[in-house]
Amino acid sequence: MKDYEVVIGLETHIQLNTRTKIFCSCKADSWEDEANTNICPVCSGLPGTLPVLNAEAVQKGALLAAAMHAEVNPLSRFDRKNYFYPDLPKGYQITQFDEPIGKGGYLDLKMADGTKKRVRIHKLHLEEDAGKTKIEHGTRLVDFNRCGVPLIEMVTEPDLRSGEEAAQYLIQLRQLLRWIGVSEADMERGHLRCDANVSIRERGSQVLNTKTEIKNVNSIDSVRQAIGEEAKRQIELVESGGKVESYTLDWDADRNKLSLMRSKETEADYRYFRDPDLLPVKLSREEIAGIMAALPELPLERQARFVTEYGLSEYDADILTNERSLSDYYEAAVGAYTGEPKAVANWMMNDLSRMLNDLGKTADQLVLGPKALAEIIQMIDDGKINAATGKSLLKKVEESGSRPAEIVEKEGLGLIADSDALRAQIEAVLADAPDEVANFKAGKESLLGWFVGQVMRRTGGKADPKRTRELLLEMLRK
Amino acid sequence: MSLTSLSAFEVARKVKAGELKAVDVAEAALAQIRAVDGLPGSLDGGAVSADEEKKVHAFIQVTEKMALEQAEKVDQAVARGEDAGLLAGVPISIKDIFCVEGTTTTAASRMLSNFRPPYTATPVRRLIDQGALILGKVNLDEFTFGSSNESSAYQPATNNPWNTDHVPGGSSGGSAASVAAEEVALSLGTDTGGSIRQPAAFCGVVGLKPTYGRVSRLGLIAFSSSLDCPGPLSRNTRDAALMLQAMAGVDPKDSTSSTRAVDDYLSTLGQDVKGLRIGLSPDYDAVYYPNFETGELHKEAIQKEVHETLYRSAELLAKAGAEIVENVPMPNTAYGIPAYFVISRVEAASNLHRFDGVKYGYRTESAVSNLSELYRLTRAEGFGPQVKLRILMGMYLSAAGHDADYYTHAQKVRALIRQDFVRAFEPDGDHRLDALLTPTTATTSFKRKAVFGNSLLMQYSDQMTVSSNHAGVPALTIPAGLDEAGLPIGIQLIGNDFREDLILRIGHAFEQVSRDEAWRKVRPQVLAGEVKA
Question: Is B222 helix (H, G, I), strand (E, B) or coil?
Answer without folding.
Answer: coil
